[in-house]
Fold this protein.
Amino acid sequence: MKLLGTNASPYVRKARLVLLEKNITHTYLIDPPREPGSQVARVNPLGRIPALILDDETCVFDSPVIAEYADTLNDAPILIPRTDALARMRVKRWEALADGIMDSAVVVRGESLRPAEKQDTGNITRHNDAVTRALAFVSGQMGQRAWCEGSSITLADLAVASALIYLDLRQPERNWRGAHPNLAAWFSRMNERASVRTSLAD
Ligand SMILES: N[C@@H](CCC(=O)N[C@@H](CS)C(=O)NCC(=O)O)C(=O)O
């Protein structure tokens, strides 16, 4: 299978981390959707990354669907609980929270690329405030636990790490480590994982 993406996209990072953690053989292809010659719109009608192209050419999108599909391919590890409905919901809710942080940070990034006089400052504030609230919620839920949910790594950890890596990239001035030392400690452990190192290497 082939994963189309870019290194900056937090959704792509989440999908990559799932494939890497589960040791699923794949080729990672850098394909910015807006560049001439991109194959993204041909395979994903939404024109978005990540797009996972299976060997029979089926295209899997978007990142929650990729994560869920990939998680069913093997059990090592199981990243989304299979049978416990409450545990499953909680992991998916963590993912929704992380994706929401990404969504808001992407909006803020988009605004910042517009000429100053065209930027919607109200929109920027709304989305930055949502990120701030969501981080406080993440921190409160995390407490001093080793993992977001349960007693081992899940999709929740990979999704939250992807959101935080994106915040570091686009909002380096945001001092989330100072505001949430428990998140900082958890993140520095996540950062040592081979999957995260690989995703940050290229
Ligand atoms: N909900 C989607 C969001 C994907 C998304 O918005 N990706 C952005 C990159 S971060 C994209 O492809 N935008 C289209 C573009 O850049 O033209 C997912 O989770 O996969």
Observations:
- The mean pLDDT is 98.
